[in-house]
Amino acid sequence: MVVFAAVIFLLASFQMTTKALTVAAGESLSYAPEILIQKMKAGRQESIPVNYMEKLTGIFGIRSITPRVWGYYFHEISGANFTILGLDPSAMPLGDQLSRAIDSGNSPGTHETVVGEGARSALAGSGSSLFSLFRPDLTLKSFTIVGTFKPETDLLTYDSLFMPLGDARDLFALSDDMVTDLCVTVANPKEVSTIAKKIASLLPDTRVVTREQVQKTYQAVFGWRSGFASICLLTALTSFIIFAWDKASGLTPEEKKEISVLKIVGWQTSDILTLRFWEAVIVSLVAFLVGYTLAYVHVAFFDATLFRPIMLGWSVLHPALRLIPSVDLSEFILVLCLTVVPYLAATVIPAWRSAIIRADSALN
User: Fold this and answer.
1) Deepest in the core among 83, 195, 211, 290, taking most CB within 10 A?
2) Cβ–Cβ contacts within 10 Å for residue 291, how many?
3) For residues 48 and 173, is the Cβ–Cβ distance under 8 A?
């Protein structure tokens, strides 16, 4: 029963972790711009001119367009990839609410940055708030850490450095008329897809990505990783069921003697089969409840420690997420059907085969 409960624990943990990560990603993306515009060339993203904003002024329904610099910086000392984000918060409709995402400190000024907890640990390990990063020509650019993001935003900000647009341009050696993408906010959320199509028709050399598409991408990534791991666990479950079948098929002398004694005292084959069935039901349900409860505790109180490296990917800096598991009825029934039903079949059928033997042959 211990092995059976362990398999259920692993399978249920993956289901709960995937659901919790998907919910956390959806909540974190709720403040993201409705539309992102990126310039493409030869199938790859390149810098987009700021004057592309002028071509979109005629589209009714666009609330604002904000230029943004977004990219990765490999930090050789820690071996981590930082996410660099540069923009002017005052140019965004909800820019004045940036302070709600900052746990301590202020919005960054020139040569200042607000960082995620993981980036802060990697950059300020010596206790200093000053650090320097290399430009592409290997000259150094210095920054001062003036704030950190709240833990609730770790999924998106744990490895991030937020800085003014000019500093991000300087760090990546972008000219003043270029950015990496344009953030579009829309007045009416129901018109996002319509406005995205209009932007794509006016700017055919760009990729237009809506917030809904980004959310679906997160769901697909978490679902793929969870599905791959679940297949591995189902293999372990199948091996366990085959083992249970093999063990139930082979009667020990004590079991044969027990069946013979029961038949001699008047038990019928159906009575023995019923006994074996309810015995298997009790064992499987107890194992299921123990495994599912341990899975909930693992996700709720230990933040899915066993599976976090698998679910969060290749990054060196893994966010210290506070996951909130939820018990979905459909997923509960799915795990129940994948574990308890095969176990019952693997134990009851061999029990029926053992119950039909003759009492005298078993005693002999």
Assistant:
1) 195
2) 23
3) no
Burial (CB < 10 A; 0-12, 13-18, 19+), residue 20, is buried
- Cβ proximity of 324 and 246 under 8 Å: no
Tokens linked to 172: 């990546």
Residue type at 191?
E
| pLDDT higher than threshold 90 for residue 121 | no
Q: Which residues of 187-210 are buried (b: 16+ CB within 10 A; e: fewer)?
A: eeeebbeebbebbeeebeebebbb
Euclidean distance between CA atoms 29 and 31, whole angstroms: 5
Instruction: Tell me the per-residue pLDDT of 186-212, one tens digit each, with 9 for 90 and over.
Output: 888 888 889 999 999 999 999 998 888
Closest CA to 75 of 122, 121, 129, 130: 122
Lowest-confidence pick of 35-44, 130-139, 272-281, 319-328: 319-328
Q: How much is the mean pLDDT over the chain? A: 79
DSSP bridge pairs for 72: 83
Could you identify the residue written with the tokens 């084959």? Answer: 269
Rg for the chain, CA atoms, rounded: 29
Measured in whole angstroms, how far is the alpha carbon of residue 246 from the centre of its chain? 38
Region 149-166 average pLDDT: 81
Say what the pLDDT of residue 169 is. 92
Q: How far apart are CA 288 and CA 278, in angstroms?
A: 15
